[in-house]
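for the recovery benchmark. tokens below, seq after
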């Protein structure tokens, strides 16, 4: 269901459609949501960025988990306080975005190996989770760091990070369902463990989707092709007993 509330500056009505007015409409929807993604398709228009900032603040007040990607990372780069110390936030930068975030937080990305630098950046943000995308995905909250190196495809198409954010926000919604005890379980997983599992699971899903899509499409692979493999990738990773998958 599309709700066309967001506005760029040149589309706003004169004297109306302020960031506060637009964000209020969206904030009213948050009680019906479990987790949100901020960034893909957002753009860097000042009104869009200001509105997103207010939505993040509203989500934080409700304790909602959220994923920040794409132009949402541009917002964090310019206003790091918007996610500072919020451990329910997950940032998903590629190499260039990761380096820009490091610069914002005064971290030299070439000082140390990838696991160390990712950990330092997560720690500098006060415990947010970072998924540094690349040939291997480095995942850290500043205390614990994991590496997801499952085999992916040989082509990376612009936009396939949307598969990661989509899988990730789904797992974060399941995290809330777990904590709300929507099914019987021993409730043994902590909040930080659930976030880490969501991050690793989404990384593994995306890499598996990439491999499956590349096997079919080769160099003609497009980002949308990954979406078609989500069902099979989930089955491979979480429902199959074949270790080769």
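predicted aa per position
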């Amino acid at each position: 269901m599309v709700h066309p509330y967001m506005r760029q500056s040149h589309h706003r009505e004169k004297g109306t459609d302020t960031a506060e007015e637009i964000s209020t409409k969206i904030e009213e929807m948050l009680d019906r949501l479990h987790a949100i993604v901020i960034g893909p398709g957002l753009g860097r228009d000042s009104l869009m960025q200001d509105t997103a900032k207010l939505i993040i603040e509203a989500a934080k007040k409700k304790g909602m988990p959220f994923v920040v990607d794409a132009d949402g990372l541009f917002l964090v780069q310019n206003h790091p306080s918007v996610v500072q110390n919020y451990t329910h936030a997950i940032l998903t930068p590629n190499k260039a975005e990761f380096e820009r975030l490091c610069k914002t937080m005064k971290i030299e990305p070439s000082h140390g190996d990838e696991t160390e630098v990712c950990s330092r950046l997560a720690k500098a943000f006060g415990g947010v989770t970072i998924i540094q995308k690349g040939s291997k995905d480095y995942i850290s909250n500043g205390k614990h760091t994991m590496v997801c190196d499952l085999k992916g495809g040989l082509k990376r198409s612009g936009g396939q990070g949307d598969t990661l954010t989509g899988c990730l926000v789904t797992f974060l919604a399941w995290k809330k369902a777990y904590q709300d005890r929507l099914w019987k379980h021993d409730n043994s997983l902590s909040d930080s463990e659930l976030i880490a599992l969501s991050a690793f699971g989404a990384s593994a899903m995306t890499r598996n989707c990439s491999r499956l899509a590349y096997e079919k499409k080769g160099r003609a692979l497009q980002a949308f092709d990954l979406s078609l493999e989500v069902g099979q990738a989930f089955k491979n990773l979480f429902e199959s007993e074949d270790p080769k998958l």
